[in-house]
Sequence to fold (784 residues):
Amino acid sequence: MSLSEASSDVVVVGGGIVGTAVAWRAVEAGLSVTLLDPSPGDGATHAAAGMLAPVSESWFGESALARLGIAGLAAWPRFAADLARATGIDVGLRETGTLVAAYDADDVAHLRRWLALHAELGLEPTELTGTQARRREPLLGHHVAGAAWVPGDHVADPRTTRAALSAALHAHPGAAVVRSAAVRLERDAGAVVGVHDDAGTLHRAGAVVLAAGWRSGELAAAPVRPVRGQTLRLDAPPGTAPEHVVRGRVQGRPVYVVPRPPGTGSGPGTTAEHREVVVGATSEEGPADRRPSAGGVFALLRDARALVPALDEAAFVEATLRARPATPDNLPLVGPSATPGLHLATGHHRGGVLLAPLTAEAVVAGLTGAALPPALSVADPDRFTPLLEGAS
Amino acid sequence: MSLSEASSDVVVVGGGIVGTAVAWRAVEAGLSVTLLDPSPGDGATHAAAGMLAPVSESWFGESALARLGIAGLAAWPRFAADLARATGIDVGLRETGTLVAAYDADDVAHLRRWLALHAELGLEPTELTGTQARRREPLLGHHVAGAAWVPGDHVADPRTTRAALSAALHAHPGAAVVRSAAVRLERDAGAVVGVHDDAGTLHRAGAVVLAAGWRSGELAAAPVRPVRGQTLRLDAPPGTAPEHVVRGRVQGRPVYVVPRPPGTGSGPGTTAEHREVVVGATSEEGPADRRPSAGGVFALLRDARALVPALDEAAFVEATLRARPATPDNLPLVGPSATPGLHLATGHHRGGVLLAPLTAEAVVAGLTGAALPPALSVADPDRFTPLLEGAS
Fold:
């Protein structure tokens, strides 16, 4: 029983970077779109550092994910350029290169296995000596035992990107953003024909796109679970932030340090020379609590300062914890499902920012009856069947 | 040149716990009082943990400070009772006892020197074995090598105390709180007769009390310098917070963990069983920057979790950095100065919360021509002469 009804071609559930990108590409394709989210951008996007790093992140047994990531990265330049044209906002897409650091002897052994894997895949990272690494990145800690250089990785600013997408959406006559929460799918003869929200409105639509992160499993039985990730934001004066993304392992624990360009600092006393630095990320299975733990803050600072000791002098701005949507095989759920009217754009785990542009293209292809990008064949939403059993 | 004038018996410059306590005791004594502060309570009081610990804190060469602290603690019960009567607010004065912990062998050696000092002073801490210490405080870390028990120390909540003082002041017809900053003293024939504020008002008064923390040196040449201190606030679910104050040394670095009673937690998801836990404090000479550093947050968490590992599971709520007012001899500046009309209530360094009640009594005694409490003879504002040379 709904108090009111509204209708559009498409309802997108979820206003993170993925849902907002889908909504924007859909209105650009001529569809009318309603985006539902009680607080857009306050999910996993809010915590994400924005590394576009399919090479640095790939590991044994994840070659499908690596290939998907490489296709995802290839979609970014046009996406950023289109968005800049539509809004005038620079979303911070930069090719910084990534220094991959190994702290102790075990971490170096792990780095060498990773380099061997990449040689097999025909990818390009090269091992550096300690001296070479410190020449490239003088703020690297003295105890760092080994390193490699990955030239192709990029970085973008997820909060700015989502804000730009939101601005583009608000400026478009075909789009409506409704700040309420989806509570239930409307079904008719086996097809999904709309979404009920918590304000009592039924949003009827020819198609519903689930882009609600780990909460997508609450509306349809999408096999996503929350995996919490904590990041820290620092305001770094000159001389305390590395020039490149530094990621690596410290006594077996993964950590990354992502510097943004000068002028991105925040807080009282920041100047045009200060940079935002994002340190991340924990990875914790379990309930989707949003409160960073003292232990998580400690572990991130311990490992980040092991790689870049000068970070000690940066101002501590923020600790943020959000849950990523993870699937059983770590690959996302993207495109039309077997249920008529139901499309998915979730399950991106650590790759939501990287894969947002490609996911948006794929979902719009599905909505308009076009062929999906081949890289997304691994992301079939129905590979874990039955998708809608138990859905409300 | 002032745009307007106002007058009262007393102007108190500074609305931290010390200034607000002075203002309240002064209006209770029948004086009319104007309290000047652009943002009351946002100085050192905002960071303070509220340990009332003259015994745990005393060290060689500081017996005058220890005696002053013991007198300061003795003034607290009546102060808290009077404040509760005036406002109905419980300011959290509790006798928890303090467990003093020593992490490694060097820390134990330091603890034993401290115990010997206290035996000399006739004070009461007793050394505990590791087993005894863990029986008293089961959350104490396994690596803690030694401990002592101080039964007499108390704790109070500085933010709540200041808020209660502010409520009492607002309810009193003799008090006015003006949210502007003092910029200059008004002098007449060698006497201080008022204060100019940054809104262009001259606040005339028979007496001016400087209680502006480390900024007191900006109005008169009070020999106070900023010493920054950083504290963390955690929201601790049951089983993660110690029952007693735990303080100690970890590889030579002092740290404390102050649990408040159940129901003092904060943030989403907190329950009536959660406690606020304050971890502190760094001590850094230098400019009075208010932004906590990544290195400071790291060091506090590292040392606190060495003493109480379960804190890892508590939620990270806040990191706060403020500057304490320190003097050359670590003793405060309290009472009438040699300059007619100028009274001081500053320089309390780490003891502002502990000494606020006694300081308020002493300053009001000075304002009304009564004798100062003997314990404050060491706090003569003119012991570093000349106080007002260079003052505006």
Observations:
- Chain B has a mean pLDDT of 92.
- Chain B has eleven helices and 19 strands.
